[in-house]
Amino acid sequence: MRDYEELLRRVLRLVGEERREEIEGEVERRMMEDPRLTRLGALYVVAGELGVFERLEKGLSSVPLAKLVGGLGSVNIEARVIGLVKARREPPTIYLRLGDATGVVDAVAWGGAVSRLEELKVSVGGALYVKGAYTRERADGSVEVHLGEQAEFSEAGPGLPPFESFFRDLPDVLEARGIIDFKALLLGLADERSVSVKGEAVGVRDVLLGWRGVKAELSLWREQVSVVDEASVGRVAYVAGARWSAGGTLSTTSRTSIQLAGEEDREPLLVKVERGLNQSAVFLCFTNMGLERVYSEELKPGQLISVKRLRYARVGRSWALMPLEYEPLEGEAEIRPKFMKIGDLRVGMVDACVKGELASVSPATRIGTKRGEADFVSFWLRDGSASIYCKAWGEGVKMVKGLGEGEKVSLLFVRVVSNPWGEREVYIGEDSLVLPAGDSP
């Protein structure tokens, strides 16, 4: 029986677990037709008719990705392509992100391997069998697969994990560090800006991503700027090979691949306009998902609306929700503000909302920064789950002045960053709000 289970496991790895019932039913049928057949023998007959043994023979010669080490001269691998980028340089180069049931690795194809991959029409989501690859160990200790002149390619069997399984939800990769693969809803785009890198003007565009009420920014660099546009807003993005910096900034690299899927089905968002904020046409609003800064020249405090279509846009240095299609609602709705626990805050979050008790409030002072002198004040915020160090800068200092230790406050629309020691900190900027306990919300 053990031999039967082992063979069945190997067969299902190639043809797909969803065919288990079909194959076992066919085994039973063959045994009834020929009583001389054992269960193992019947499975061999079924597997042979499915062409499994040819694929098993090939699969036995491949190395699981998690077992790859640097310095291998000729290895065969079988993997799902979860990311693919053709570099804009000469000679032609293709960067791939490959995954199997054991792990994920980066790969680079050059020379004749590039044309052979293109002839095979390899694309993101496809299953690839590689014969004759070699490996190198990178400076950070990770393994990189090289696909050179000797590499041969064919389509792999169906036993690999599905494409979507390689991508974690956005909240699950916060503070993960290094290179990550994740999925998130694309909520909004900022205007493209230019930064100087070693004297070269480089295009950068920030996008707002979200998942289950958690928001984070992703900075698109160079050629990645053109990967998304206004039509991409509202769609699910599968991002392979993005990078977290030490300070908690999420950005693309030359190898990052972004695959857009369809729009996520969402229920209309219930929005109650609470009051206006300092910026023109920007309101503090309660929603059934949490607290939001909402930008609209049509809304007024006290209104209740159902938003069917929306997007986020940069207003100042923060993001604001823009209702694109909505309808007013009559009557009252009890929408209570939702806050995160301090213990659930993660580096990389933007527009987070927390509340707690002040402790160890420092005197306001002026300190030197790269942009000149700025007002500064710091304090600890604690609740039942944890404590976190908070820093207020510039206009944010005015909101903290006058508050004493032991007071309960709400911090709205703050960022969670990392200090040089890798510890979480809250950044309170000019678009944040610090409200004493007696104030709304």
Describe this structure in words.
This protein has 441 residues and is mainly beta. The chain has five domains: 56 residues, no CATH class; 99 residues, OB fold (Dihydrolipoamide Acetyltransferase, E2P) (Beta Barrel), CATH 2.40.50.140; 93 residues, Nucleic acid-binding proteins (OB fold (Dihydrolipoamide Acetyltransferase, E2P), Beta Barrel); 60 residues; 95 residues, OB fold (Dihydrolipoamide Acetyltransferase, E2P). The chain has seven helices and 26 strands. Strands 1-2-3-5-4 form a five-stranded mixed barrel. Strands 8-10-11-13-12 form a five-stranded mixed beta barrel. A hairpin with a 2-residue loop joins strand 21 and strand 22.
Summary of the model, kept short:
The chain has 441 residues and is mainly beta. The protein is built from seven helices and 26 strands.
Number of strands: 26
Total number of domains: 5
Uncertain residue segments: none
Instruction: Tell me the span between the first and last alpha carbons.
Output: 64 Å
Mean pLDDT across every amino acid position: 86
CATH domain class of the largest domain: Mainly Beta
The CATH topology assignment of the largest domain is: OB fold (Dihydrolipoamide Acetyltransferase, E2P)
Looking at the structure, what is the overall shape? Answer: elongated
Question: If classified by CATH, what would the architecture of the largest domain be?
Answer: Beta Barrel
- How many H/I helical runs? 7
In CATH terms, the superfamily of the largest domain is Nucleic acid-binding proteins
